[in-house]
Write a structure and sequence with these properties.
Cathepsin B, Chain A, SH3 type barrels, alpha+beta, 3 domains, Lysozyme
């Protein structure tokens, strides 16, 4: 299985280091490992990785039994290893009809395997859909790509802040304050202040809510408030469900919310009775990692209310809204850094032509035949250089005068970790990038960027 395939499995399995019962009562630990797992078992992250590799080998072995019949490409192989990891070798045999089905028939049948214990599960529906998409994806050398979203942590506002705790937030016929009833407008203020206008506070959003009739008498803020309030500042927001989901841990809205977080965007949630409230309360989710969510709760900084499991959250949430964020890494101006040698090879370049495309040639000279072209602004992996200032790429040769170093800068993120290796571990952190700090992009490695800073430090960010 490729690194991409392994990351695909990790995304769906998540990683819990304490044994838990899955949807059909099977004791599970780590990345979906079930063999020999017992109640109360606890493992390390390293052990979870070991289990994952071992379990993947079993799945790979199952898929390889049929490879002589199909000659799977890498995407097809990765998709079927993920399927087998989740459903078992027996179901793989059934899916392939023991080698009798065609590639197109296998693709068509993949979505059917979405039940556990006889019940259709939204998580399995989503996994099968993405496995089918991967299975059907043709193999091609990517000529361009977009940086993956980086977690953007919003500013934290609290209802209890003395600056606005006692500020009026009332509908006609009542007397309420931001401290007592303003969780919704505080959440909105966090979003706007982080993404658009640092001067916005809960007072700003409370005033707008009251002026436009969104304060609910003897309650908090109407559910219809968030979309127009955020739209006023050019922020896209969409309500994910119209029916109360409290006590229901799986739905299409749950799936959409989880996808939103995994893509680096945010989710507003109205919670029901439980860990976050005794009645109703708005919170802001900004990160999902290995089964856990990171939260800004406007009423509390207690650890269990700032970070907890997706499973607990999903059972107690009533309503959800998705908030779209811009990509945290943007490409600044194309001029090269003074520190970068024009003879430097093995980096990401950006096509910088005055107009039109950049020709790709079969040999490093202008008389060689044209074998393709790169578009203006396209990112290109540079594999080597020649003494005549031509660069070698995966598709051929391009003239180096039209290639500048690809760069990025930290955007909407106060601190971004640089890691020694492309994986998330505390001991792996080398240093930190700060807002607006620029880096040179060297290459993409399975969704991570290998980068070089102005101080010449090399590491990985995601």
């Amino acid at each position: 299985i490729s690194d991409q395939g392994l990351a695909f499995i990790k995304k769906f399995e998540g990683c819990l280091l304490k044994a838990y019962e899955d949807a059909v009562g099977v004791w599970t630990i780590g990345y979906g490992h079930t063999s020999g797992v017992f109640k109360g078992q606890v493992i390390t992250k390293e052990k979870a990785e070991e289990y994952l590799k071992s379990d993947c080998k079993n799945a790979e072995k199952g898929v390889n039994q049929y490879n002589h019949l199909y000659h799977f490409n890498q995407n097809q192989f990765d998709a079927l290893v993920s399927f087998t990891f989740n459903c078992g070798v027996g179901n793989l045999k059934t899916l392939l009809q023991n080698g009798q089905r065609s590639i197109s028939e296998i693709s068509a049948k993949l979505p059917a395997y979405h039940k556990a214990g006889g019940k259709a599960l939204q998580g399995l529906i989503q996994r099968r859909m993405e496995e089918k998409e991967l299975f059907d994806r043709p193999i091609a050398s990517p000529s361009s790509f977009s940086p993956l979203p980086q977690v953007v942590k919003p500013v934290l506002y609290l209802q209890t802040d003395p600056q606005w705790k006692h500020y009026n937030y009332s509908a006609k016929g009542e007397k309420k304050t931001i401290g007592s009833s303003g969780c919704g407008v505080v959440v909105a203020a966090m979003i706007i202040a982080t993404l658009k206008d640092k001067s916005v506070t809960p007072i700003t959003t409370a005033e707008w809510s009251m002026a436009n009739g969104y304060k609910a008498i003897h309650q908090g803020t109407y559910y219809s408030y968030f979309v127009p309030q955020l739209k006023k500042y050019g922020i896209s927001c969409k309500q994910l469900n119209q029916r109360n989901l409290y006590g229901q841990s799986s739905s299409s809205a749950h799936t959409l919310a989880l996808q939103t977080l995994k893509k680096g965007h945010w989710v507003i949630a109205c919670m029901g009775k439980g860990n976050w409230t005794n009645a109703g309360h708005f919170i802001l989710l900004y990160e999902y990692e290995n089964g856990y969510i990171s939260i800004h709760d406007p009423a509390s900084t207690a650890p269990g209310r700032q970070k907890n499991t997706w499973d607990l959250f999903s059972k107690q949430v009533k309503y959800m809204w998705a908030v779209d964020l811009p990509n945290p890494l943007t490409s600044p101006s194309p001029s090269p850094w003074e520190t970068l040698s024009q003879n430097f090879a093995d980096f990401l370049g950006k096509v910088h032509t005055n107009q039109g495309n950049l020709n790709i040639r079969s040999e490093p000279n202008s008389s060689a035949s044209i074998v393709g072209s790169y578009k203006k602004g396209e990112l290109v992996e540079i594999l080597g250089n020649t003494s005549t200032h031509w660069y070698k790429t995966k598709k051929g040769y391009v003239y180096g005068e039209y290639i500048v170093p690809a760069r990025g800068k930290v955007y909407n993120c106060a601190a971004l970790n640089i890691r020694k290796e492309p994986k998330v571990e505390e001991k792996n952190i080398l240093s930190v990038l700060h807002l607006d700090e620029e880096v040179e992009l060297l290459k993409e490695v399975n969704g991570w960027f290998k980068i070089k800073t102005k101080s010449q430090q090399v590491g990985y960010i995601s």
